[in-house]
Amino acid sequence: MQAALDVNPATRPNAAAAATGPAIDVAQARPRTPWGRWAANALVALLAVQALVFLATNPRLEWAVVAEHLTGPAVLSGLGVSVLLTAVSMSLGTLIGTVLALMKLSGFATARAVAGFYTWLFRGTPLLIQLLAWYNLAYLVPRLSIGLPFGPEWASWDTNEVITPFVAAVLGLALNEAAYMAEIMRAGILSVDPGQRDAARALGFTPARTFRRIVFPQAMRIVLPPAGSQVIGMLKGTSLVSVIAMTDLLFSVQTIYNRNFKVVPLLLVAVVWYLVVFSGLSLVQRRLEAHFGRGHQAAATAARTR
């Protein structure tokens, strides 16, 4: 009589194979159908089509009025003022912010205290209040003068003649932006390896040359992304200068729709131009990031290919 159980290991079937069934050919495996992604894509496409239909068929948008005023002289003049305010205020804000960042990183306690107080004051108060304060400076200081403290005056000017709406807008935007750029620049400078400064000092570089040739180019890789966001925020922040009668883009369209009562179409004109300038600034930002990040990107690519 044959044995009921086969005790020979060589002839005993593989228990794991018996439990899992026949072998699966991995080469013939297929990914699962992404039903969730298909549903999300369909929902997004449906919403996009609905938005396009709304924009194209809603008569209250009055696209003919938008096209009429999109390149109007008053609108283009206001657009130029907004772009000019952005460029001038951002340049001054970056320059002052860089000085404030160096003051915060210096070993001079008074400089650190002054820079800390500046950023605390300008970051802690709304930009609109700062614009109004500069615009109404003549209420506190009727005349601006140059001279010795508590001593004789050498020259003086009427404050209203000096602080025009444009000057008030530049001061408000630039000084407010400097407080934010100070923190951005400080973070970028701290990201540079201290050994770079030590090596520059060993080569005989002065502190100013070390910052200009060694620290600043490397810090820009960290500074550019948030600084680019600040430029875009500055462009949109110029719309606040309309409260001080500055003829920027928003003030220009407001002047027009106060005459013809076409509020929504004129606001769409402003939106279109803001988006156009924003797209151009985003392109410039990407180009600058690619320029200052060339060495880092090459090193990262070499490290991944090892």
From TrEMBL:
CDD domains: TM_PBP2 (cd06261). PROSITE patterns: ABC_TM1. It holds the Pfam family BPD_transp_1. The chain crosses the membrane at residues 38-56, 76-103, 115-135, 162-182, 263-284. It is found in: Cell inner membrane; Cell membrane. It is a multi-pass membrane protein. Keywords: Amino-acid transport, Cell membrane, Membrane, Transmembrane, Transmembrane helix, Transport. Its main location: membrane. Belongs to the binding-protein-dependent transport system permease family. HisMQ subfamily. This is Amino acid ABC transporter permease.
